[in-house]
C-alpha cells in the first residue's frame, strides 16, 4: 500500500467532463434516483423506439432478474457505425497496427460500415439469424471487429474465444452455446510466431460436431485445409455480396454476446450480456473514465478475446465515434520499445494496458521507454489485476513523464464495464487503489458472516444494486448464475474479490478470495487446471493454487500425486506442463509442479487448499490448525519438498 496522493492536475479539472463537485453531484443523483439518472443517460445511444421503463432488477434469492430499458428498441452496430456516418464517414474508426511494424491500416467509419455490412450479408447467406450463436476465433485483425459488429447487425450472438485457447477449450465453448458457424483465420501472427488457428478449429470441430460453416480470413497465407461445402475464404464470400444490410431491430434485453470465463468450480461459464444496458454502460464509462474527446486516439492493448477488448477496443470507443487502435503483436517484438513506438507512430493520446505488461517492461529498464517521445500521451489506464504501487509509480514517472494521470479500472467479465475507477478530472489518485465507484455503483464490504463493514476496513466486495452493464445470466443456466453470484450473500452481487476501504473511502482490491487465479491478467479456475492434470494417465490427484509472481502477479503452483508405480522425474514434469498447455492453452502453463506422495485432506476427504496456498506462498510458518487433517504427516513432506523458483 502506498500513502502517496497525486492530486488532480489543474488543467485536468478544467478540461475534463467531470470535476470533483460534479462527480459528487452525479454520483449522489445516480444512487438516490437510479431510474432518473439512467433514464437520462440511456439516451446517449440511439433508440429506434424509445424505452418507457428504465430499471427492472431484483437480486432477491431464487428470483434474480436484471432488465434495463426493456421496452426500448435499438441495434448495437447501428450505434457503433451507421449513426456516425453523417458526421464521421471519413474519420478513422480503427487504426490497425500489425505484428510487423511495416504493416498498418486505417479504416474509416464508411469503410467500417461497408466491411461490416458485407460480412453480415455473408453470414446471412449462411443462414445466420437473430439469436443464433456464432463463434469467433481470430487473431487481432480488423476482421475480428467486423465479425463482432456483423453479428450485432444481424442480432446474432457472438462468442469470441481467445486465440490462445486449445482446440479442446474451443470445442467446449462451441458445444456449450451450440454455434453452427465459426469465423477464424488461417493463422495468427504474434511476435513473429505463427499460431495455427485453422488447424485448431478443425480439431475443435472434430470434437464438438455440429458446425456447418467456417469462414476463414487469409492472414499469413500458409496453406490450410479447406473442407468443401463447409469452409469458405472470407474474401471470396465477401466479394459476392453488397454493402447493403439493414440493422436488425433489437430489444434492449436481446442478447449481444456470450463470453466464457472461469469460475471457482466446473467448466467456464458463458457470461451473457445484452444489448441496450451494456451499450449505454460501456459507452458512458468509456467517455467519462478516459475523458475521451473527439479526435483523440485511444489504444487498449487487450485482445478482443477478453471482455476488455469487447468493451474498450470495440463497443465503448465505437459507440462514442472514437478512433480505436487495434494491435496484433506483443509488447516486446521486435524490440522492447514497441509499445512506445506505436504510441509515437499513431500519436496515441490514451493508453490502457495491464499491470503484468508494465512489470515485464519495467524489468527491461527505462531506456527502451525514454528513447521514445510519448509526447502525444495524456492519460494512462490499468486493468485486469491489482497494480502494485512500484509498477504504478514507474508507469506514471517513466511512461507518463509525470504528466499523465492513471485510471486504475476495477471490473470483471461479469460487470460489462468498469465499476470502480478514478475519473481523471475528479479523483485524486493513490498508487494501487482503484479509488471510487462509477455512477450508479454501490460497493459494500462484508465480513465472512455477511455483516456490513462500515468506514475503513476490509472484507468481501459485493454490490448492492444493479447497473446497466451487468451480466444477465449464465448462458443456458440461470440457476448457476444465481448460485455463483447471489447465494453467498442474499440480495447482493458477490464479486469474488477481497477489498479494503481506507479512511477516504478509497477502494483497494486485494485479489480473488475464491479459487480463481489471475495469471498475467488472465483469469483461470484452479479446477480447470486440476482436471487437465488428472486427465493425464500418470496423474492420480492434483491440487492447484496461486502464488505471488513478480511479473505475472500470480503463478500457477500444482501439487501432483502420481499413480502407484510411476516415478517422479524432471521429464515427467515437463511432459505435464506440455500436457496442460495442450489441454487448455499456453495461458494455463503451470509454473511449478511439486510431486507429492499425498495431499492434505480432512477426514471427510476434502483437500485443504488453505494449507497448500500457505506452502506455495512460502508462509508455512503460519499453516494454522492442521489437527483436523486425516494424516497431518503429509504436510511435513510438502513443506520439505516445496519448490522455490520464482
Ligand atoms: O480480481 C479482479 C481482477 O480481475 C478479475 C476479473 O477478471 P476478468 O473477468 O478476466 O476481467 C478482467 C478485465 C476487466 C476481478 O475479479 N481485476 C480486474 N481489474 C482489476 C482487478 N483487480 C485489481 N485491480 C483492477 N483494476
TrEMBL record:
Assigned keywords, A-Z: Acetylation, ATP-binding, Ligase, Magnesium, Metal-binding, Nucleotide-binding
SUPFAM superfamilies per UniProt: Acetyl-CoA synthetase-like (SSF56801)
GO terms, molecular function: acetate-CoA ligase activity; AMP binding; ATP binding; metal ion binding
Domain AMP-binding enzyme C-terminal intervals: 528-606
Reaction equation(s) it catalyzes: acetate + ATP + CoA = acetyl-CoA + AMP + diphosphate
GO cellular component: cytosol
EC class (word): ligase
InterPro entries registered for this protein in UniProt: Ac_CoA_lig, ACAS_N, AMP-bd_C, AMP-bd_C_sf, AMP-binding_CS, AMP-dep_synth/lig_dom, ANL_N_sf
GO biological process assignments: acetyl-CoA biosynthetic process from acetate
Protein name in UniProt: Acetyl-coenzyme A synthetase
Natural source organism: Chelatococcus asaccharovorans
Amino acid at each position: 500500500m502506498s500513502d502517496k496522493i497525486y492530486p488532480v492536475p489543474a488543467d485536468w479539472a478544467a478540461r475534463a467532463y467531470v470535476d470533483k463537485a460534479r462527480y459528487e453531484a452525479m454520483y449522489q443523483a445516480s444512487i438516490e434516483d437510479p431510474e432518473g439518472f439512467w433514464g437520462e443517460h440511456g439516451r446517449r445511444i440511439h433508440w429506434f423506439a424509445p424505452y418507457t421503463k428504465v430499471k427492472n432488477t431484483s437480486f432477491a434469492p431464487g428470483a434474480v432478474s436484471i432488465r434495463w430499458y426493456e421496452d426500448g428498441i435499438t441495434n448495437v452496430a447501428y450505434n457503433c457505425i451507421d449513426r456516425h456516418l453523417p458526421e464521421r464517414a471519413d474519420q478513422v474508426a480503427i487504426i490497425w497496427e500489425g505484428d510487423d511494424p511495416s504493416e498498418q491500416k486505417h479504416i474509416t467509419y464508411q469503410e467500417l460500415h461497408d466491411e461490416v455490412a458485407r460480412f453480415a450479408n455473408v453470414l446471412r447467406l449462411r443462414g445466420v439469424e437473430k439469436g443464433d450463436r456464432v463463434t469467433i476465433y481470430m487473431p487481432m485483425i480488423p476482421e475480428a471487429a467486423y465479425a463482432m459488429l456483423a453479428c450485432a447487425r444481424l442480432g446474432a450472438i457472438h462468442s469470441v474465444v481467445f486465440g490462445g485457447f486449445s482446440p479442446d477449450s474451443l470445442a467446449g465453448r462451441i458445444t456449450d452455446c451450440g454455434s453452427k458457424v465459426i469465423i477464424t483465420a488461417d493463422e495468427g501472427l504474434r511476435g513473429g510466431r505463427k499460431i495455427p488457428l485453422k488447424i485448431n478449429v478443425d480439431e475443435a470441430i472434430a470434437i464438438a460436431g455440429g458446425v456447418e460453416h467456417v469462414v476463414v480470413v487469409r492472414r499469413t497465407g500458409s496453406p490450410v485445409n479447406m473442407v468443401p461445402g463447409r469452409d469458405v475464404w472470407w474474401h471470396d464470400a465477401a466479394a459476392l455480396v453488397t454493402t447493403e444490410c439493414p440493422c436488425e431491430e433489437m430489444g434492449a434485453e436481446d442478447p449481444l454476446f456470450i463470453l466464457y470465463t472461469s469460475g471457482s468450480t466446473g467448466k467456464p461459464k458463458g457470461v451473457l450480456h445484452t444489448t441496450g444496458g451494456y451499450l449505454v454502460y460501456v459507452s458512458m464509462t468509456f467517455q467519462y473514465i478516459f475523458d475521451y474527446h473527439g479526435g483523440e486516439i485511444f489504444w487498449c492493448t487487450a485482445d478482443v478475446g477478453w471482455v476488455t477488448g469487447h468493451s474498450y477496443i470495440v463497443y465503448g470507443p465505437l459507440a462514442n465515434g472514437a478512433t480505436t487502435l487495434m494491435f496484433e503483436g506483443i509488447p516486446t517484438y521486435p524490440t522492447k520499445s514497441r509499445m512506445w513506438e506505436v504510441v509515437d507512430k499513431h500519436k496515441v493520446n490514451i493508453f490502457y494496458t495491464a499491470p503484468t505488461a508494465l512489470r515485464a517492461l519495467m524489468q527491461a529498464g527505462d531506456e527502451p521507454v525514454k528513447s521514445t517521445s510519448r509526447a502525444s500521451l495524456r492519460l494512462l489506464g490499468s486493468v485486469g489485476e491489482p497494480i502494485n504501487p512500484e509498477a504504478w509509480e514507474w508507469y506514471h514517472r517513466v511512461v507518463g513523464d509525470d504528466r499523465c494521470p492513471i485510471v486504475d479500472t476495477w471490473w470483471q467479465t461479469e460487470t460489462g464495464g468498469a465499476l470502480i475507477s478514478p475519473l481523471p478530472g475528479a479523483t485524486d489518485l493513490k498508487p494501487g487503489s482503484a479509488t471510487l465507484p462509477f455512477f450508479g455503483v454501490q460497493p459494500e464490504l462484508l465480513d465472512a458472516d455477511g455483516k456490513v463493514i462500515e468506514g475503513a476496513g476490509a472484507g468481501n466486495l459485493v454490490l448492492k444494486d444493479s447497473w446497466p452493464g451487468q451480466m444477465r445470466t449464465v448462458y443456458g443456466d440461470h440457476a448457476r448464475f444465481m448460485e455463483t453470484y447471489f447465494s453467498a450473500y442474499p440480495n447482493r452481487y458477490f464479486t469474488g474479490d477481497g477489498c479494503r476501504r481506507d479512511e477516504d473511502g478509497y477502494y483497494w482490491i486485494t485479489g480473488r478470495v475464491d479459487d480463481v487465479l489471475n495469471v498475467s491478467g488472465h483469469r483461470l479456475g484452479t479446477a480447470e487446471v486440476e482436471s487437465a492434470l488428472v486427465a493425464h494417465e500418470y496423474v492420480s490427484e492434483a491440487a492447484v493454487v496461486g502464488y505471488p509472481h513478480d511479473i505475472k502477479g500470480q503463478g500457477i503452483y500444482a501439487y501432483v500425486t502420481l499413480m502407484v508405480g510411476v516415478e517422479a522425474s524432471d521429464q515427467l514434469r515437463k511432459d505435464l506442463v506440455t500436457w496442460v498447455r495442450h489441454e487448455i492453452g499456453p495461458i494455463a502453463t503451470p509454473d511449478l509442479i511439486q510431486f507429492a506422495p499425498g495431499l492434505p485432506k480432512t477426514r471427510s476427504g476434502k483437500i485443504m487448499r488453505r494449507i497448500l496456498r500457505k506452502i506455495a506462498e512460502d508462509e508455512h510458518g503460519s499453516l494454522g490448525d492442521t489437527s483436523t487433517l486425516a494424516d497431518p504427516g503429509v504436510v511435513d513432506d510438502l513443506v520439505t519438498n516445496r519448490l522455490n523458483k520464482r
